[in-house]
Amino acid sequence: MAGCLGPGSIVPWVEQRIGLVLAESQVTAIRLALKSKVLVMTGGPGVGKTTIVKGILRILAAKGTNLLLCAPTGRAAKRMAEATGFEAKTIHRLLEVDPRGGGFKRGDDHPLDCDLLVVDEASMVDVMLMQALMKAVPGKAALLIVGDIDQLPSVGPGQVLADVISSGAVPVVRLTEVFRQAAQSRIITSAHHINQGSIPDLSQRSTDSDFYFVQADDPETAVARIIELVKTRIPKRFGLDPIRDIQVLCPMNRGGVGARSLNIELQAALNPAGDHKVERFGWTFAPGDKVMQIENDYDKDVYNDDIGNVERINLADGELTANFDGRAVTYGFGELDMLVPAYAATIHKSQGSEYPAVVIPVMTQHYAMLQRNLLYTGVTRGKKLVVLVGQKKAVAIAVRNVSGRRRWSKLQEWLRPKPSLSRQIGVAS
Description:
This protein is about 30% helix and about 20% strand. The chain contains 15 helices and 18 strands. It has helices spanning about 10-20, 25-35, 50-60, 75-85, 90-95, 125-135, 160-165, 180-185, 185-195, 220-240, 260-270, 370-380, 390-400, 410-415, 420-425; strands spanning about 40-45, 65-70, 90, 115-120, 140-145, 170-175, 210-215, 245-250, 280, 285, 290-295, 305-315, 320-325, 325-330, 340, 345, 355-360, 380-390. The chain starts with 9 loop residues before the first helix and ends in a 5-residue tail after the last helix.
């Protein structure tokens, strides 16, 4: 990535283009990126990852560098494009997935056409998908991997981001400084407290806060309070749409305060179905429902975790049409096993996404899933508002439990630079 602007001119030039004054740590990160063939950048919310990426892209675009940006999910790619001003695609679309066979057209025999590839939300990328992506990176290209190592690892096998960082094989920028504007958000400061093993401040806050805790000592109370928050209190106080803007995120699917049960309750409260509805595979769908795709469908060009809204149901033709980010997708009623209501979802399903408001039940009945990186991931999904509903004891259990981080993998060992033969046998080099 080297050889761009003169060392003295980079900083003021970038600051003018992005409209921000860069901190010294951000300037250092940009300089390192511009001279590195491969770089990993990691850090939590509010530490300036997006600002650095924007700066790098502006510099290289001005020099005519061929840039490609990608992320694991459609929502993450859309966020990346909005944040940087450059086009971003899902990894599957970038690799030109074959709808019939499920393989990729891009690979070592047909590499991507780029000088720099930027991969965002890398903590979500599993071993197989990262291997496919790396095969498609041309030898001439540089690589920038961006992600938050403290979030949940990928749903699929491995912990690619963590292994690459710990291997020592490539330079790593660890961003820890929370900038002043971000530090004013209690969402961000609470997320960093959680990540550091400290219980966030759960006391009652003034009405201008963006992070709240609502006490609920049993599942029945929690469900009632969640419905009240989503249907009435949050829309009234913050002017947010209960279906479009508010997302309930649960530690698990099962149980009275799990995603499945809450979906039924929230659907009945927010969009009760009339006669124009279809019931398939244990779910009811009606116009206006928020839905999630739960598997990749290459023919329809919709992917696991994509969220849309039901636009219409044609009972005569046996078809449901849903809108995904402005694009209409039609399902036969027999294909509705690919959709579920999405008023509530698991925190695992929320990776790579952001929502204006997030409501998270945290109950001791979720004990098996109460882990620090799970709660941290859930809290960092909220942009304007995060509300925890449940028991302080459950929050404390989650914050203190780091057992969920351990995964067994050989990738770190394979990537780690091998010592020279002379060092292996104890001979001075």
